[in-house]
4-deoxy-L-threo-5-hexosulose-uronate ketol-isomerase
Amino acid sequence: MTTSYESRYAGSPAEVKQMDTVQLRQAFLIEKVFEADRISWVHTHYDRYLTGGAMPVKTAVVLETIDLLKAAYFLERRELGIINVGNDGIVEVDGETFELAFKEALYIGKGRERVVFRSKDASQPAKFYLNSTPAHHSYPTRKVARSEAEVVTLGALETSNHRTINKLLVNSVLPTCQLQMGMTELKPGSVWNTMPAHTHDRRMEVYFYFEVPEGQSVCHFMGQPQETRHIWMQNEQAVISPPWSVHSGAGTSNYTFIWGMAGENLDYGDMDHCKITDLR
């Protein structure tokens, strides 16, 4: 078997604010997303979200079910979102082939039985970043190129948060059950993401930071607005954000991050904003 997984329990605000640095990192940080010729998953009890990575190098990697799901195959009752953050790759879905270049996305609906990941060139492997959520309905598999994304530019260089939001797997682009994924690219000279910060009680979120230059880091902020905590993160690491928590970050350089969300709500704009001066 070329698949591994671990499960993380959900924590309340009262519990989380008592955690020290090590405990916070153990509960929320996903330090290693990609491993050669394997799929590695982290399951969180927040909305039963699965975050993982597939990096085929010497061989193709097959999407296998895991004991946690109690399912005959991985997508029996789930949907899957993929964004390639490496070199050119190929995803085969029940015999249909999709080529994914850097920063291109693929949505795979519930009920697809066989999914295989390949790199076009083993010396320059693809890195497929994976998010999966429970699904109640089967929607079509669809590739979303960057040119098909819904693009929004926010912020300004003067406030260090000039950024481009690429909405890739969202309901304004294609139908999904509950999974939403997109990618935010910070302009040179900008370091703050998702500022002013916000929460959204009807959905949780996972951030994956990449394109962090060598020797640089990102400080990710979480917790209730009046009781924030921080986690220092490196390139190609992910972090789990509970529904009650803010999710924001500042880097020592500009960078890119992928956001993935799940819950009962598909309205991207449904969020409770926090005034910057009210954060504690």
Summary: The two ends are 46 Å apart (CA to CA). Residues 11-135+146-278 form a domain with the Jelly Rolls fold (CATH 2.60.120.10). DSSP finds two helices and 24 strands in the chain.
